[in-house]
Write a structure and sequence with these properties.
Strand order of the largest sheet of chain B: 2-3-8-5-7-6
Number of domains of chain B: 2
Number of strands of chain A: 10
Shape of chain A: globular
Largest sheet of chain B: 6 strands, mixed, barrel
Distance between the termini of chain A: 16 Å
Strand content of chain B: 15-25%
Helix content of chain B: 40-55%
Number of helices of chain B: 14
Strand order of the largest sheet of chain A: 6-7-8-3-9-10
Strand content of chain A: 25-35%
Helix content of chain A: 25-40%
Number of helices of chain A: 6
Structural class of chain B: alpha+beta
Radius of gyration of chain A: 17 Å
Largest interface: A-B, 30 and 27 residues
Order of helices and strands of chain B: HHEHEEHEEHEEHEHEHEHHHHEEHH
CATH architecture of chain A: 3-Layer(aba) Sandwich
Oligomer: heterodimer
CATH class of chain A: Alpha Beta
Number of domains of chain A: 1
């Protein structure tokens, strides 16, 4: 599903070079629930952003579903993100002026292969799945942090992406809400055979992952499965 | 950009205005409305003054075309034949002669210098609305002699003391009173005041009118001469057409249209008005552009992270740009509508309460074309002001935007 070879990202700040990723090579299989863990500054989020086409590597190659990402134009990358990828961010990143339903529908509304009614049905289904259908007309500020993150997950899932990326989705949540959100991720992974790549720094989250890679100083220092992979 | 993308951009714009800062939206609309009013008010005012002066000159001085003596001549001579020739031309409603003499009016202890204008009352009705401006008494009859109509400012107000008067008057002449006119050529005659009129045009209001028949007694030259002839065109005939026709038909005296005359007398004033209008227009456009630029720039700066997120989830940069573009379009349309309402209310108010000076009175002169043109100019300025920051921010890379 995802093939990463010798991926390097160097940030230049004046005369100083920071090697955020240093020759990462990795394959991610379809249906996998992969956790990327490591201390702060280890390159977790940088790797996720490279995989999610939010940033460009300094060198190396990323192939997603047989598509070499480097060969895509800016517009093609946007469409790739819209049709094939889903994102959940640490701070929920919902549009504050849109209702829950509007936020969730937004990616679907831009798809050429969905009409308005189909988009509405897809949004309603996913909201029902995360248990927030009764809050569909609320604005994000009227929801708790956990609820907002669930809405963010619904928005990421409404287009049925090939890969779901999550950047520390529980960082702003307490343990109870974190479990609710992680349970949802696991349920989506198991029921929909959804490929998920999640960055986390909480050690107990690894129980949810099929496979965990650990980064330090931009390098993969461990890559192991825990034998709970679905299907 | 497809229909779906535009729809999403419009939804984002609408929701941002509906659910964002209401005070900011109202203030922006108010500023655009005021700028629109400012853009249109001053030119409309000046146009109103220009139109008012033009109308009054047409109504009380020139008609549509003025036939005056050739250079070197004192009068338009051979009056009967000239009038017959002009009145027989297609497009001419009526031509009527004017013969004016300076004179001194005497009433009780008051003495006042005025112009006495001799007219043919019936013909004058076709050229000038003077006969409809009587505030007391009645208009002159064709064969009246010994009777005069005078302007209200000439008649004066008996309740105002002479030393308090804005302009000299006879101190309160009423219809039926007798006044003495001394023509300065030894001819002195008592006249009965038949009527008092008020036109709002100072040159007409500070004159007195007698019939041509009466003037012929004062000065025999008035029988077959005129200082000038005013010509009224029939509806649908232009002044230039009549002028060219008069020249073609061999009317030998000097022929000028109202526009010819006004371009000389009012030309400099109109040029000054045009410069002031242009400055006012430019200032309004700059204010609107700067305000909208600041509003949209602040919005985009405050929303950089959100813009980054939207791009991350697959929203195209064009959608993001048009989102802000639509916000500006909505704000501009609402501002222009508000401006139009304010302008029309001002126009309605000024129609009832015109600006009145001793020389002229004026209201706002608005045409649908003025409203459309100014709306269009403001709308384009608003679009530029909104799209420039929107374009800049929509081109920012995702990482930079998300880190904002």
């Amino acid at each position: 599903m995802i093939e990463i070879s010798d991926l390097t990202k160097i940030y230049r700040m004046g005369n100083v070079e920071v090697r955020a990723l240093d020759g990462v090579t990795l394959d991610i299989e379809k249906g996998e629930f992969l956790g990327i863990m490591g201390p702060s500054g280890s390159g977790k989020t940088t790797l996720l952003h490279m995989l999610g086409l939010l940033d460009e590597p300094t060198s190396g190659k990323i192939v997603i579903d047989r598509t070499d990402i480097a060969k895509l134009t800016d517009h093609e990358k946007t469409m790739f993100r819209l049709y094939k990828l889903g994102y959940v961010f640490q701070d929920y990143a919902l549009v504050p002026d849109l209702t829950v339903m509007e936020n969730v529908s937004l990616p679907g509304m831009l798809r050429k292969d969905l009409n308005e009614a189909q988009c509405r049905v897809a949004s309603t289904d996913i909201l029902a799945k995360i248990g927030l259908l009764d809050r569909q007309d609320h604005l994000p500020r009227e929801l708790s942090g956990g609820q907002q993150q669930r809405v963010s997950l619904a928005r990421a899932m409404v287009n049925k992406p090939d890969i779901l990326f999550a950047d520390e989705p529980c960082a702003n949540l307490d343990t109870e809400n974190s479990r609710v959100v992680l349970d949802l991720f696991r349920e989506i992974n198991e029921s929909m055979h959804q490929t998920i790549v999640m960055v986390s720094h909480e050690d107990w989250h690894k129980d949810y992952f099929h496979r965990t890679i650990r980064l330090r100083d931009g390098k993969v220092i461990s890559d192991g499965t825990n034998g709970t992979k679905a299907h | 950009m497809g229909k779906k993308e535009l729809k999403v951009a419009f939804l984002l714009a609408l929701r941002s205005l509906q659910r964002g800062s209401r005070s900011s939206v109202i203030l922006t609309i108010l500023i655009i409305g005021m700028c629109f009013t400012n853009m249109i008010f001053l030119p409309a005012m000046f146009n109103g003054i220009g139109q008012s002066i033009t109308k009054q000159v047409v109504d009380y001085e020139v008609g549509n075309v003025l036939v005056s003596p050739k250079v070197g001549d004192q009068y338009v001579s051979d009056l009967g034949a000239t009038l017959d020739l002009i009145n027989g031309m297609p497009g001419v409603e009526r031509a009527t002669p004017h013969f004016t003499k300076g004179a001194t009016l005497k009433y009780r202890q008051r003495i006042l210098g005025v112009s006495v204008r001799a007219i043919s009352p019936n013909d004058e009705k076709y050229v000038s609305p003077l006969y409809t401006k009587m505030v007391a008494g009645s208009y002159l009859g064709e064969a009246d002699t010994g009777e005069v109509i005078i302007g209200k400012p000439v008649a004066g107000d008996p309740s105002i003391r002479q030393e308090d008067e804005f302009q000299p008057s006879l101190g309160g002449v009423r219809v039926g009173d007798s006044i003495t006119i001394d023509y300065g050529n030894g001819y002195v005659k008592d006249y009965r005041v038949k009527g008092i009129y008020f036109t709002g045009w100072s040159q007409a209001d500070s004159a007195v009118y007698v019939t041509s028949t009466d003037m012929a007694l004062v000065d025999p030259k008035a029988q077959d001469n005129a200082d000038y002839i005013t010509v009224k065109a029939k509806p649908g005939y232009s002044e230039t057409f009549i002028k060219n026709e008069l020249i073609q038909y061999g009317v030998t005296p000097k022929v000028q249209t109202t526009a010819d005359l006004l371009s000389k007398s009012l030309g400099r004033a109109l040029q000054s008005f045009a410069i002031i209008n242009l400055v006012s227009l430019i200032v309004s456009i700059i204010i609107t552009t700067v305000v909208l630029f600041i509003v949209i720039t602040i919005k985009t700066i405050n929303s950089r992270k959100q813009i980054g997120i939207l791009k991350a989830i697959g929203v195209d940069k064009e959608v993001i740009m048009h989102n802000y573009g639509f916000q500006v379009i909505i704000l501009a349309i609402l501002g222009i509508i508000l401006g139009m309402i304010i302008t029309l209310l001002l126009a309605a108010y000024m129609a009832v309460h015109p600006i009145v000076t001793p020389e002229w009175s004026a209201t706002l002169y608005l045409t649908p074309m003025d409203l459309v043109m100014n709306s269009l100019i403001l709308f384009i300025a608003a679009l530029v002001a909104g799209y420039v920051p929107a374009y800049q921010v929509s081109r920012e890379d995702i990482q930079t935007a998300m880190r904002a």
